[in-house]
Amino acid sequence: MHTGSYIDGAWYQPKNDRLIRNFNPANSSEVIAEYPAATAECVARAVAGASEAFKTWSKVPAPERARVIWRATEIARGRVEEFGRTLTTEEGKILAEGCGEIKKGISVLEYYAGAGTRLAGRTLPAEGRDVFTYTLRRPLGVVGLITPWNFPWAIPVWKVAPALVAGNTCVLKPSEITPNTAAHMVEIFEEAGLPKGCLQMVVGYGDDVGQAIVDHPDVKAISFTGSTATGHKVYAAAASRGAKVTCELGGKNAVIALADADVDAVVASVMNGAFGSTGQRCTATSRLLVHESIVGQVTEALVAGAQALKIGPGLSEGIQMGPIVDEQQFTSVLSYLEIGKSEADCLTGGGKVEELSEGYFVQPTVFGGVAPDARIFQEEIFGPVLSICTIKDLDEGLRYANSVRYGLTSSVYTQDIYEAMRFVEGIETGMVHVNEPTVGGEAQLPFGGIKDTGVGDKEMSSDGLNFFTEEKTVFINFDRGTKRDFNR
Prior knowledge:
- By secondary structure, the chain is of the alpha/beta class.
- 38% of the residues lie in helices and 22% in strands.
- It has helices spanning 40-57, 62-77, 80-91, 95-114, 154-165, 179-191, 206-215, 228-240, 263-275, 295-308, 327-343, 375-378, 394-401, 417-426, 461-467, and strands spanning 5-7, 10-12, 19-24, 27-36, 123-124, 131-139, 142-146, 169-173, 199-201, 219-225, 244-248, 253-257, 285-291, 345-348, 365-368, 385-391, 406-407, 409-413, 431-434, 450-451, 454-455, 469-477.
- Strand 7 (142-146), helix 5 and strand 8 (169-173) form a beta-alpha-beta unit.
- The longest helix has 20 residues, at 95-114.
């Protein structure tokens, strides 16, 4: 397993007393890797190398660039278990979830491998006679990609693949908490024949490496996924120098279950959405708004389900929920559990798992009787914590669901198509589900939110590809001499 940074086709560890230590969250005394952190100087070197590589890579025909993506896809397909184990070891997901994330990334690679023959412009009618007008899409140059720890494979993939197939070169900063999974992505692109300098990876801290990427004048675009507070700073800094920016930020996602909802389906959905990946995903179901006629039945089933979950190290047999990623996040989640106990009824969970004290294990927690102005209802916790609120009807559910600052994803459970469509129209989220969980996304569909969740273009699908290009409009006059009016 490679560790450290990857610059100009070689693995590299700078001279730096500031170290990165990667721990196994299931056993916090186990150091997975330790190495010097990258620096702003490393970023400067990576950007310079990427700028040089861009001169050649941008001129490679898009279908040929896409073949590199396709070769990487085939390599990854043969290493799912290996990559999944790395992901589980450093991030904490159970192995099935780790392998599932690898497969999700492979689907994204497949989609963008096909995009090499779909990098299309538009033909449009001109006002003048004998004029042909059309548009082209061209790469931006060097792009900076800053990714989080909670999806250390899928999110780097869905930024790197469209950027490369569009003809850009990349400087990637993965989270310093989970860089080894991203290193596997670099390995497969290297093996697939990606020219050196086209994908640079610098593993360091945000206040040094991240800031240097955002501020560098030769980085033409920034794609950031992370916290809302940091994202707003990134957007302001990069946009102030004229860079193109997209930020995918926090979420506080709600499921609304109406009186006619399929109770079994609601429970299965919320169990997966609230406690899958230990609640550490931006699309997690953290709020459940249940009609008063079924709230007792739904709550009882969810409490029983949470209590039955088998918690432990993600590589162990039969485990259904792993640990929190690191000590800082562990402490944050525990502090929210104490806040929740002062605001609502803690129906199950509410603390750390004492018998698993060697790791960062938190009990799956369900709060009942949660008021819509409670902090645990309003603020992103990023852990296995569910808040249940009782509603009288869809209008009240929409009012409570829309009361938060975030707007990523949402879901309604109902058999009434009229209520379902009212929900679709009334909910303030970028992604909407009917009778299915809040989690998930597909490569061919736009991914992203509104309000404080998203700034700039959405990711994945053609939206993700278009972000990494600029559009050029072309006018071709094929009139051999007839006078024309150019005052249009």
